[in-house]
């Protein structure tokens, strides 16, 4: 199969719709990461996404819809606080989980009676969703557990020859996946942190809880992105909380290596003689935007990546650190 990368135009949108109508999978941009999109009503299309990604079949998908789509076609109950959250944050990087009406393919929610729904802010994504006119399930367009893609080229590197079309909407500005918030209870509960923080949600509806899964007790995965090892580059990744420990470990390595750290620490590592120092950024927003691109750069340039955790831990940084820690989940963070 030939994989084409096409800029978003009326012609490429029509081509994408035709492919979706035939049960194919199309990669689409969002403001967070690129997604691997298929018809949410089509069992075979949904199963194809799992197969192409190599995604575990107990990891639910998110349905993407355009801003004016009637949610009550696919969700069973829309709590008042969810309406407030949509008014405040959508379109944008927030996924809301509702009781499902059972209209989409049962493979979307992996046996759960809920449905995660997102309204992306990316203009190209909105144009695509309006063109197709149906909910599109679209997990990140990367091989399972690999670093998520923030450019069309990232998608191509993972899926060349496996999908027919990648709609090129440029570099993603958000950089990490959407916040996932459960709206099936009395109060909203964050299942996966992201760019919309607990504090932001609480400021709109008064309260917001954070859920901690217990897979050892046999709980099912309620949200994408909560598996232990995730977002991982092909090189080895080891994370530290103290820069002196990170530097000592870097110096002990006998392989091609690099350091990843926030901007204010880059001078320390460069003066210490580190040849490759990746600047994650100065602000939480910059760090979110830069993270995945730098993880992919690391796997191209070195055998091991030494990470110094940023100092800030709250707000958007909870989402950044969540992704960073999962990228090196096979290794303990050295404290």
Tell me about this structure.
The protein has helices at 10-21, 43-53, 80-89, 123-132, 152-159, 198-205, 243-252, 266-271, 284-301, 316-327, and strands spanning 4-7, 26-28, 35-39, 62-64, 94-99, 114-118, 136-137, 165-168, 179-182, 189-192, 209-210, 236-240, 257-261, 277-279, 304-308. The protein is 31% helix and 18% strand. Mean pLDDT is 93; it is low at 330-335. Helix 1 (10-21) packs across helix 4 (123-132). It is α/β, with parallel strands linked by helices. It has 2 domains: 4-217, DHBP synthase (Alpha-Beta Complex); 236-327, Threonylcarbamoyl-AMP synthase, C-terminal domain (Rossmann fold, 3-Layer(aba) Sandwich), CATH 3.40.50. The protein contains 10 helices and 15 strands. The chain starts with a strand and ends in an 8-residue tail after the last helix. The protein is globular. Helix 6 (198-205) links the parallel strand 10 and strand 11 (209-210). It has an 11-stranded mixed beta sheet with strand order 1-8-2-3-7-4-6-5-9-10-11, sandwiched between helices. It has a 4-stranded parallel beta sheet with strand order 12-15-13-14, sandwiched between helices.
């Amino acid at each position: 199969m030939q994989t084409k990368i096409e800029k978003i135009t009326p012609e490429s949108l029509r081509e994408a719709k035709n492919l979706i109508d035939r049960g194919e999978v199309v990669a689409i941009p969002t403001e967070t990461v690129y997604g691997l999109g298929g018809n949410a009503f089509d069992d075979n299309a949904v199963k194809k996404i799992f197969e192409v990604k190599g995604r575990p079949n107990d990891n639910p998908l998110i349905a993407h819809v355009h801003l004016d789509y009637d949610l009550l076609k696919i969700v069973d109950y829309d709590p008042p606080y969810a309406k407030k959250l949509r008014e405040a944050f959508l379109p944008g990087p927030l996924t809301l989980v509702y009781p499902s009406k059972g209209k989409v393919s049962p493979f979307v929610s992996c046996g759960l009676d809920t449905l995660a729904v997102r309204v992306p802010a990316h203009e190209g994504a909105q144009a695509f969703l309006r063109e197709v006119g149906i909910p599109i399930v679209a997990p990140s367009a990367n091989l399972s557990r690999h670093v998520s893609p923030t450019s069309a080229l990232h998608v191509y590197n993972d899926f060349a020859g496996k999908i027919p079309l990648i709609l090129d909407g440029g570099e993603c500005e958000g950089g990490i996946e959407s916040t996932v918030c459960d709206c099936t209870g009395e109060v909203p509960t964050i299942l996966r942190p992201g760019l919309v923080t607990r504090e932001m949600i609480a400021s709109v509806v008064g309260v917001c809880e954070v859920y901690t899964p217990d897979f050892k007790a046999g709980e099912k995965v309620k949200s994408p992105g909560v598996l232990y090892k995730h977002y991982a580059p092909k090189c080895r990744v080891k994370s530290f909380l103290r820069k002196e420990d990170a530097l000592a470990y870097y110096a002990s390595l006998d392989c091609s290596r690099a350091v990843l750290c926030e901007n204010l620490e880059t001078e320390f590592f460069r003066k210490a003689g580190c040849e490759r120092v990746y600047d994650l950024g100065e602000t939480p927003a910059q760090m979110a935007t830069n993270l995945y691109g730098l993880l992919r750069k690391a796997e191209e340039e070195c055998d091991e990546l030494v990470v110094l955790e940023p100092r800030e831990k709250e707000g958007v940084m909870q989402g950044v650190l969540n992704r960073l820690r999962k990228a090196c989940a096979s290794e303990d963070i050295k404290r």
